[in-house]
Model the fold of this input.
Amino acid sequence: MSLASRHEPLLSSVDPGLRPQGPWSEVWDRSEARSVLTTVPFRLRSRPLTVRSLRNGENLYMLIEWHDEHPDLSYEGVLYNSWLKSGKEIGPMTTLLRDEVNVWFGPVYASGPLNGAMADEKNHGHWVWRSQDQRDLDQDFIDKAQKEFGIPYVNYYPILSTGAYAARYVGNTNAILGARSSCQWVVKPAQSVYIPAISVPLQGKGQWRDDTWRVMFEVPVASLSELGDRLEVVMSIADGGQGERKAERTISQPLVLDISPRAEGVGK
Done:
């Protein structure tokens, strides 16, 4: 099959006249739902994703849902691949991996490879949600730590010459600085452990319920308008309980998201 062939599912963003208050808001029942196929590199399994989208006023809302038996928000209950079949719980020996969602997007080209959304990341970045940031916000972790300890981490560790690495520079997810939001728009990806990614906070939230994660992104439509009324979207999910790193996460098939204005939503 030619790489120029296009068979992506189409998801329309409708306006139900109400703003969703969270990932499990009943307003989402008025939206279309699209299931997308996924693949996990190097593993013979998949992770089905369900995607929904709404518009309300000047904002676009996108909801991603998938099955996950554990939210992987702390050390407790973390299982790694070599121990999954035994069911034995062990303490992490390296960086604790947690759940994460990435959303790549770009204009829909008339022809071209199906990974155009990911190829365009250098032009407008991508969205990301992380479970550890969500947990810190839900529990007001930084505010509580500052009240008890003052500065809740060792001072900045400037990296000079071959000096010691600070924990956060090598990706330790527990060496947090305090999340401003659980969702971020990564404008420029990290260049190295010395030069972290440049990102701005996005409105949004993730909630785990009944062995299911739902993650909602809220984005101003104006920030996407230059890309057109239709966007090609590719998503990836990392499961911390499965010990998934970047090369092992689920990557979805492309999805076309229609963000053009619509008069009424489903059920209105």
